[in-house]
Design goal:
Blueprint lengths: L4 H13 L5 H4 L1 H25 L6 E6 L2 H10 L6 H7 L4 E7 L2 H12 L5 E7 L12 E10 L4 E12 H16 L6 H28 L1
Helix pairs in contact: 1-5, 7-8
């Protein structure tokens, strides 16, 4: 059987970091990857605003998945107790959410970020072009970047979600409402959510048109 180099690198890191009771320390690599990407995004935001007099980023948030949440996802996917396999297979242990004023900004930020030499684009999920059935819209990028530690370089995956303010509002409220129904949303309720998502998309289009008029 051929050994996957990425999985082997993570396994070696685990030998040093992910010993009993030290899984949170292992997650430091994901925290560092987020910090690297956050710095890149802030630089892009400030420089683009300086050159074009328009900031394409409204705000940025981030999170590293909690050990309990990782364990539950590993269990659901049948990966057993092998945390190294989990770290290698899962795409969303580290996550960044970038909220932009306009849909055009979403794609502009995605292009600028993935054009950087040390940002490797692994996968793209374009839920703006093809929204989910419930109306969810966002652009998801799975990227991998190098994290420079004191004695080695680790390549770490991060999920970057890019969306507009309207998309983010819809997603935040939909999450709260759907959580109440424990993933069993009534059909009529789901229809209303999908209609609200279309309204949000229409708002994005109208605001983009106004922006173009001002420019």
């Amino acid at each position: 059987m051929t050994t996957d180099p990425a999985a082997e690198d993570l396994r070696e890191a685990a030998d040093e970091l992910a010993v009993a009771g030290q899984l949170p320390r292992f997650l430091l690599m994901y925290k560092f990857a987020i910090e690297e990407l956050m710095t890149k995004l802030r630089i892009l935001s400030e420089e683009f605003d300086f050159v074009h007099r328009h900031d394409p980023i409204e705000h940025i948030t981030s999170r590293v998945k909690r050990p309990e949440a990782i364990k539950e996802k590993v269990r659901r996917r049948g990966l057993g107790d092998d945390w190294i396999a989990a770290a290698h297979v899962l795409d969303d242990i580290a996550g960044i959410r970038v909220v932009c004023p306009f849909v055009s900004d979403v794609h502009q930020v995605a292009r600028m970020l993935t054009a950087q030499d040390d940002v490797e684009l692994l996968r793209t999920k374009d839920y703006i072009a093809k929204p989910k059935a419930n109306g969810y819209r966002s652009l998801h990028l799975i990227v991998r970047i190098p994290v420079f530690l004191s004695d080695r370089v680790e390549k770490v995956k991060v999920e970057v979600q890019l969306r507009t303010i309207a998309m983010d509002f819809w997603a935040a409220v939909e999450h709260k409402l759907s959580y109440k129904y424990a993933d069993s949303v009534p059909d009529d309720f789901a229809g209303e959510l999908a209609a609200a998502a279309r309204t949000a998309a229409d708002l994005d289009a109208r605001m983009a048109a106004l922006h173009e008029r001002i420019r």
